[in-house]
Amino acid sequence: MASKSDKAFYLTTPIYYVNDAPHIGHAYTTVAGDVMTRWHRLAGEKVWFLTGTDEHGQKVLRTAQANNVAPQTWADNLVRDAWLPVLQTIDAANDDFIRTTQDRHTTRVQTFLTKLKDLGFIYEGSYEGPYCVGCEEFKLPGDLLSGEGDTQLCPIHSKPVELVSETNWFFKLSAFTERLISHYEKNPKAIRPESAYNEVMSFLRSGLQDLSISRSTFDWGIKVPWDDSQVVYVWFDALLNYATAVGLGDDPTSAGGQKFEDTWPADVHLVGKDILRFHAVIWPAMLMAGSLDLPGCVFAHGWLLVGGEKMSKSKLTGISPESIVNLIGSDAFRYYFMRAIIFGQDRSFSWEDLHARYTSELANGLGNLASRVQAMVGKYFDGKLPAAGAHTPAETLIVELLEKTVATTDKAIREFDFQTGIVSVKDFIDAVNLYVTEQEPWVVAKDEKNNERLGTILYTICEALRAIAVLYQPIMPKSMDLLWSQIGAVESGLVQSLNEVGRWGQLKAGVTITKGETMFPRIEEPETI
Ligand code: MSP
After folding, report:
1. Is 462 a catalytic residue?
2. Cα of 445 to ligand 1 centre, how many Å?
3. For residue 5, pLDDT beyond 70
4. Domain regions of the chain by residue span
5. What are phi and psi of 72, to 5 degrees?
6. Coil vs helix vs strand at 516
């Protein structure tokens, strides 16, 4: 059996509803998870990155019915045609993809549910109250907005809620109020950012009600094992994916049990702020009831907005990831969303801002630096990396700045502050570009006596690019892998790793520096938003 020191860094995204195709809001969460897990992998850590789809419930059922297909067929088609392909589009390196209609999920959910019932945490009762099918959530009166006449609206979907009146199975959520409060008081970093922590704490302090965890008026869901007339409430089913995907409840000696030992508890559940309470209240209470360890952290990020509201397909404001990736490529897509938005805050999407940053930071900043040095090594040294001579204060500055950049970036990214992490690398690139401008290698090259000095300058730029190709690798894997080989790192026998990135002087003199395809070709200014 694996000792806990072998435990993987385990990160999850929400599992996405298959009522429609993904938009950039969904891609945003997955990219953030992918950047974070690639960062940990590049540091040599064991990692497990899970994403997937949430396929049961009324929302998916109604969409399938509206399209005259069986819900399973609808889900199969959408997963095949949209949700799996989008992972390629945004270049996500997930380790697993769970679908809640898979047997590995449904059987483990049933076993877990039976266990909670046997332990006395589930009882039969009747539910009457408002329900939003868009959120798949039983709403509290205080959650709603007033619509026309007597109607009450879901504040997220701006649609009338429906009145549900059913005999259902209930989970004793209220029994966990005090334990949850005390857990979060002891672990203030278990919900981030701080605003999300405060929101959950005040919600908990107002007291919890028991939760209806089954539905009887439709049958698109996992059957309650002891009651054929009910299916499991879609959120109770969905939240369990994080544990069923890694072998929840399996015999410890089996492959599933071993996987669970290696992965559980999750280190990070990344979620949008709309689904924070499910993850920071209901989910840990379910785990407490089942005597399972609690996740390290739930991080609630903000929304991509359109016209001040959450971008959504149901409001026809969804922008597809492909529409942007086809224009600027997956790397620039990933870079833009991680760089422009403070993780945890809302932000309107703007083509102008995307275009401006792409041009100044990627095409002009990094792309230009790489192509200039590649051209100069080609011209002055026949494409072979020259050796560096003695450092002047200008080189010492770059070497020292790299050390600081590595420390700042590592700390920021591990703390989910993607923007600070990226800006610190960008500032380093700006400093190297300034170094090139000030050292004027094209002037130094005019006199052969200066050959050693010219070599030092060009070597310094290439070494800086070697480090950048590592620091930006989790954010822009394709172009940084390309850059890595173009600047001779492969030929130098180096392996990309965060642990070694700040050590100066790793490229070997004499390796070939190639000028390949432009990493970030210029793009036209968009005409419309
Ligand atoms: N199926 C549930 C989650 C179950 S997890 C056990 C669900 N699915 S969803 O498809 O509606 O949304 C999932 C996630 O997509 C959100 O939590 C958020 O991470 C992301 N986003 C959806 N729209 C978004 C924006 N407009 N902006 C940013 N993220 C958004 O909820």
Report:
1. no
2. 55
3. no
4. 351-486
5. -65, -40
6. coil
